Every structure is written in structure tokens, then in C-alpha cells.
Hints:
- By secondary structure, the protein is mainly α.
- The protein has one domain: ABC transporter involved in vitamin B12 uptake, BtuC (Orthogonal Bundle), CATH 1.10.3470.
- It is 73% helix and 1% strand.
- It contains twelve helices and two strands; from the N terminus they run H-H-H-H-E-E-H-H-H-H-H-H-H-H.
- It has helices spanning 2-32, 39-56, 61-84, 92-114, 139-161, 163-173, 175-180, 185-211, 220-231, 236-256, 258-261, 265-280; strands at 130-131, 136-137.
- It has a two-stranded antiparallel sheet.
- A hairpin with a 4-residue loop joins strand 1 (130-131) and strand 2.
- Helix 1 (2-32) packs antiparallel against helix 10 and helix 6 (163-173) packs across helix 8 (185-211).
Amino acid sequence: MDIILQIIVSGLATGGVYGLIALGLVLIYKATSVLNLAMGEFMTIGAFICLTVLTQFHAPFYVAFLFTLLFAFVLGVVVERVILRPLIGKPIISVIMVTIGLGVVLRGLMYMIWTPVYRNFPDIFPPKPLNLGFAIVPSGLLWGFIFAVIGTLIFLSIFKFSRTGVAMRATANDQQAAQSMGINVRWVFALAWSFGAMASVIGGIVIGNLSGISVYMGDIGLRVLAVIILGGLDSIGGAILGGFIIGVLENLAGFYIDPLVGGGIKNVAPFFILVFILVIRPHGLFGKKTIERV
């Protein structure tokens, strides 16, 4: 029983990070109806920026962290205004393909700047683990979960209680009505992309601290896609709950099934869940079920 509890606790901690990154995807989708398939590259470039500021400029972690958030905010605004704004009104498949191309371009830039060499983060968190009595949470997972919870609460507070959040929710419900009420819809789009980028880079920093970083770390973004489809593309609560579910099931698959098949199941378990959810409940656990008449 202790081993199972340990696996579940570790899965919940990992799932909290998945949920934070998924929250960024949902914020963008709710406000703009665009599914950003370059989120994994956003996450990776944020981790590289933070690592560079830490190691090359020898800045304290809080300085590197704030600089990375500022970079993510600017990146979100630039991507929305320069790349996606001209595509307003175009077929959705065109926009999706542009986000895929954006991810490839960002990965290529990271390849040229930082090379594919695997890198480790310096020690930025206290090494002492948390002993819960029934399970032990390693320092990296503990602080990663703390960052994920704080980041999630901040973004939820902005979305639920601030004027900016009200504008984003109004835009998500009806863009034309929001514009008629004086809301700058284009600026809301830019903010949604910026907030999404900021959520992703926080997740990238946490994951980079846990397992190191390389230009291929963005593949984790595909796992996050499984998270938001499980929870519902337009559900903030579903993104968070989906992160916990995927994190726990991933760990359980790694512990029970990997030894039987020689490994690898842990990495593909989210995609088995993805296919299952799409077949049984295409709109996810909490997503809105829409019906189109043709």
C-alpha cells in the first residue's frame, strides 16, 4: 500500500505541472478558439532562457524567473500580432498548421542557439524532501507542485476576478458582443497568448529542474494535449483535474506495466487515454458539447 501511495503522490505532483501548462492552452483556446500546438516549444524556450540567465549571467533565480516571465509575455504578444492576427477569419485548419510550423521554427532556433546537448539546471530549490508519513515527495517534485499551484491560482484569480479576466471571459463567450461593449478583442487575444506562454514557461522551468532540458523537451506538449482533451478543451477546472489524472495514471502504468513489456508504456500511456476519451466522450469530461447543424 505504501508503494501505491508513493506512486499516487508523485503522480499528483507531476500532474499539477501538467495542469498548469494545460491551463495555458485552455486560456488561449477559450479566448481565441485556437489550439496552440507549439506550446511545448514555448515551454522549452522558456526553460532555456531561464537556464541561460542563471548560468551565463550568474543571476539569482528570482531574477532569471521574472526575466523569463517577461520574455514569455512579449513572445505571446509578438506571436499573436505578427503571425496569428493576419489569419483572423481564415479556416481553422490553416491556423492549426501555422502553430505547428511555429513550433518547428522555434525548435530549429533552439537547436542553432543551444545545440541538442542535454543540460541540467543548477540547484535552485532546497534539497530536503517532504515526508508525509505515508509517502515521501522529492524536493524537485515538491517545489514543482508548489510553483504549479501558485501559478494556477494566480491565473485563475486573474481570469475570474480582474477586469482583464472579465474581458477575456466575455470575448470567449461572444466576440461580437464583447466588441460592442467596448472590449478591445484584439488586445484580449494578445493577453490570452501571453498568459498561455507564461504558464507554459513556468512548467518548462519546473520540468527542466526535475529532469534537465534539451531541444526535444517540447514533446511533453503532446502529453499536455491529452490532458486538455481529457478535461475538455474549454474547461479550466478540467485542465487541472485532467493533469492530476494523467500524472497518476502515467506513474501507475510505469510501475505496473513497464516491467512486463520492457519499458516505454509510461511515455505512451497518455495517448492511450487520449484515444479512449475521444472514442467515448469526444468533448472531454467537462468540455461543452456543441452541435452543428448542416
